[in-house]
Design a protein that fits this description.
The protein has helices at 16-26, 31-38, 42-50, 57-66, 71-76, 83-101, 107-121, and strands at 131-134, 137-140. By secondary structure, the protein is mainly alpha-helical. It has two domains: 16-76, lambda repressor-like DNA-binding domains (434 Repressor (Amino-terminal Domain), Orthogonal Bundle); 86-140, no CATH class. The chain has a two-stranded antiparallel sheet.
């Protein structure tokens, strides 16, 4: 069973583009920043925000994760997304981040793995972002 089978076979509501753009801005992300975080192109994000196209189900999963919201809220506006709670989580993550940063591998080790991933996938090593999820705090390097 894949992660997208929960989604009913219906298109997002017409307010999806507005929700996507508002939450992206609230999270302090550019289109390209959201694209990187969700592993999609910034052109896709631009078309989704304009309402020209809608993401495939697997991309809704990536977008919701990158924006720290639910797929239901992003797709159909069901449920809520609370800015005050989001800010508290962000502050907490920043407080946790500094000690975790000190425990990250040597940058040369990270770069070696980035290059290995690039060689395996055909991507440019400069485009690869490695994310450490440590205790609920995500750090991209």
């Amino acid at each position: 069973m894949n992660d997208f089978t929960f989604m009913p076979p219906r298109r997002p509501d017409p307010e999806f583009p507005k929700r996507l753009k508002a939450l992206r801005i609230r999270r302090g992300l550019s289109r390209s920043g959201l694209g990187r975080a969700a592993a999609v192109s910034n052109t896709c994000v631009m078309h989704w925000e304009a309402g020209d196209t809608y993401p495939r189900p697997e991309n809704f999963v990536k977008l919701a994760s990158a924006l720290a919201t639910t797929r239901e809220w992003l797709s159909w506006g069901e449920g809520t997304t609370d800015l005050a709670a989001d800010l508290a989580v962000a502050r907490s993550a920043e407080e946790k981040a500094e000690p975790i940063r000190r425990t990250l591998p040597d940058p040369a080790v990270v770069q070696r793995h980035r290059q290995a991933i690039a060689a395996e996938t055909g991507y440019d090593a400069a485009e690869i972002i490695i994310v450490f999820d440590l205790g609920g705090c995500r750090l991209a390097v």
